[in-house]
Design a protein that fits this description.
Blueprint: H1 2-22, H2 30-51, H3 57-68, H4 78-87, H5 93-125
Helix pairs in contact: 1-2, 1-3, 2-5
């Protein structure tokens, strides 16, 4: 069961990252993309007050599963885990954190811009009575 949970979290969390970064590209997914980005920011910065900057419940749960599987040498962030896995090395946590923040803020700016534009167009196209 733990092995399945480990795989689930890997797929789920990686998928969420892809959705955060590119979910704004599909018009129907834009509102959900914005909600997920805002929830992520809330987790990082508000829950982060108590649990540490960048706190992510998914990472927390995934690391607990991996710990029970005997995997104990885990980085602070899931993003660093992914970057290190793909790069085949040990990338600086600071570099990964800065890049992650820049990407999140970029996705937020794009998502907000497109959601506001879509909302304005929808509102403009409504017949007035």
């Amino acid at each position: 069961m733990l092995i399945l949970l480990n795989k689930f979290f890997f797929i789920f969390h990686s998928g969420m990252i892809v959705f955060i970064l590119f979910g704004w590209a599909w018009k129907k997914a834009r509102p959900a993309n914005l909600v997920v980005i805002l929830l992520t920011a809330f987790s990082w910065f508000v829950l982060g007050i108590w649990y540490g900057y960048g706190y992510c419940p998914s990472t927390d749960w995934h690391w607990r599963v991996r710990s029970k599987l005997g995997i104990r040498d885990l980085p602070e962030s899931y993003t660093k885990f992914l970057v290190d896995s793909f790069a085949g090395g040990d990338i600086s946590q600071r570099v990964v954190d800065i890049a992650t923040l820049i990407l999140l803020l970029s996705a937020l700016a794009i998502s907000l811009t497109l959601n506001i534009r879509d909302w304005r167009r929808k509102r403009k196209d409504r017949p007035s009575f």
